[in-house]
Specification:
- The protein is α/β, with parallel strands linked by helices.
- The chain has helices spanning 29-36, 40-50, 53-60, 68-79, 123-134, 148-154, 168-184, 202-207, 217-224, 227-236, 254-264, 271-280, 293-301, 323-334, 349-357, 367-376, 380-399, 404-407, 431-434, and strands at residues 81-83, 97-99, 102-104, 108-110, 138-140, 159-163, 188-192, 284-288, 306-309, 339-343, 362-365, 411-413, 439-440.
- Strands 4-11-10-9-8-7-6-5 form an eight-stranded parallel sheet. It has a three-stranded mixed sheet with strand order 1-12-13, with no helix packed on it.
- α2 (40-50) crosses α16, α5 (123-134) crosses α17 and α16 packs across α17.
- It is globular.
- It starts with 28 loop residues before the first helix and ends in a 6-residue tail after the last strand.
Length: 446
């Protein structure tokens, strides 16, 4: 198991492509994109210019005005500080990790995202292909715009699947989707509990968001002012939900599939249903969304292999705590009995390192990958994976860590970490956590 390694911080540009000294000396297509779009914010700005407002708002937004929980996730992540250690030979950096019995090149993967074709047609396929090339996990959503079977052909070695509950007929379709994911070769199944109900997202309400599109004057204007996006929609068609096509028959159109998804996919994943899915699913099972140690403990008790700490990207509850602030408590509760990962405002290699230092075994990122595709189209997937790899190596070197295992032992300052009552997290700390340097509380590390 090993990740890509580079000499120093400039090891991501081959010497043959350089025309001088400096990080901007590369002269191939990837290097030119890197100069134009070096950060998350640069890609987000480009995406905002390139796609219709209703599509941009669908990805950027949360629940209330200004997406306060999205902003809270970001502010909390920025508060986490890492104390660097120097004098370490960092000429070789390993980024590879082992998750659920399989090796991946980096401790970051593509988070499940629904209806990504709204912001760029075939985004699911673009990201799956990039994840396969980069050897990082790709998590397909139940409401992806490319079917689980097609994504399995694109990303056979790195595919995971995320399930929303379809509770009708005693979850008959939920279990059928689980069986299809198994046949497709998905290596892990994520059960989503952080969406117990559909929320009112105010920007989508204002925009009159609908699939298929409803041709209001505002929608027509938005599309007309996004010509590159409009041409791609003409080529590929409006977003569809093909995972539901087998349940509606060959004649089902875009409107039929969209209505089916909206009406039938109402979660209903209770602990009893999840225990039944555990019995049916033979591979790694991950709970997506626990924010309380008692929920983490219950998941472990019924046989979950992993816990993905997330507040659904700040899209469900504006009063929810930031995902990163809950992470240490879930790690402590797990005590090494389940693999803990983080999803929530993971925008850069620095954020990946922060999560590892707080006890996560790996991370998933959503908007960071999707903005890259919205900004750059087909090139966006590889651009995002390359950026994460370069940044992870650079941050590891800067803090004196030569691997994810060493990054996990870094000393951190985390003033926002939640402290639960003893009865809520009564289990003793894990051996892993016990061996990790302390989280520094307060505003000043000494």
């Amino acid at each position: 198991m090993s990740g890509a390694a580079g000499r120093g911080t400039g090891g991501t540009i081959a010497a043959a492509t350089r025309r001088g000294w400096g990080i901007g000396a590369g002269d191939d297509a990837a290097a030119r994109l890197r100069r134009r779009f070096p950060t998350y914010r640069a890609l987000q700005r480009r995406a905002r210019w390139r796609v219709p407002r209703f599509a941009y708002d669908f990805v950027a937004g949360g629940v209330g005005d200004g997406a306060p929980n999205v902003a809270h996730n970001r502010a909390a992540m920025d508060q986490v500080r890492i104390l660097p250690r120097y004098g370490v030979d960092v000429s070789r950096i390993e980024t590879g990790v082992r998750l659920f019995g399989r090796d991946y090149a980096m401790p970051v993967g593509v988070a499940p995202m629904g209806n990504t074709g709204l912001i760029w047609p075939r985004a699911d396929a673009i990201l799956a292909a990039a994840a396969q090339r980069a050897r990082i996990p790709y998590v397909s959503s139940t409401v992806a715009n490319v079917s689980i079977e097609e994504l399995a052909r694109i990303a056979p070695d790195v595919l995971w699947f995320q399930l929303y509950g379809l509770p009708g007929d005693d979850h008959r379709l939920s279990f059928d989707l689980v069986a299809r994911a198994e046949r497709a070769g998905a290596q892990a199944l994520l059960l989503t509990v952080d969406v117990p109900t559909r929320q009112k997202r105010v920007q989508d309400v204002r925009n009159g968001l609908s699939v298929p599109f409803r041709w209001r004057p505002r929608t027509v204007f938005d599309i007309a002012t996004s010509p590159l996006w409009a041409l791609e929609i003409l080529r590929h068609g409006q977003p569809r939900f093909p995972n539901f096509a087998p349940y509606l028959g060959a004649g089902a159109g875009t409107a039929d599939l969209a209505a089916f998804a909206y009406e039938k996919m109402t979660s209903g994943l209770t602990w009893e249903v999840m225990a039944r899915i555990r019995d049916a699913w033979p591979r790694a099972l991950i709970l997506k969304g626990p924010l309380h140690p008692e929920d983490a403990e219950r998941a472990i008790a019924i046989g979950f292999d992993g816990l993905l700490v997330t507040n659904h990207g700040g899209r469900q509850l504006d009063a929810a705590p930031a995902s990163v602030d809950v992470l240490p408590a879930i790690v402590a509760q797990a005590r090494g009995r389940a693999t803990v990962m983080l999803d929530g405002s993971v925008r850069s290699g620095l954020d990946v390192a922060r999560a590892l230092a707080l006890g996560a075994a790996g991370t998933l990122a959503g908007r960071a990958f999707l903005w890259s595709v919205a900004a750059l189209g087909e090139a966006g997937g590889d651009h995002a994976t390359a950026a994460f790899g370069e940044e992870i190596r650079g941050v590891f070197a800067q803090i004196g860590a030569r691997s994810p295992e060493e990054a996990a032992r870094a000393t951190v300052q985390h003033p926002g970490a939640l402290r639960f009552q003893p009865e809520a997290a009564a289990a003793p700390p894990s051996p892993i956590a016990a061996g990790r340097p302390p989280v520094l509380e307060g505003l000043a590390a000494r």
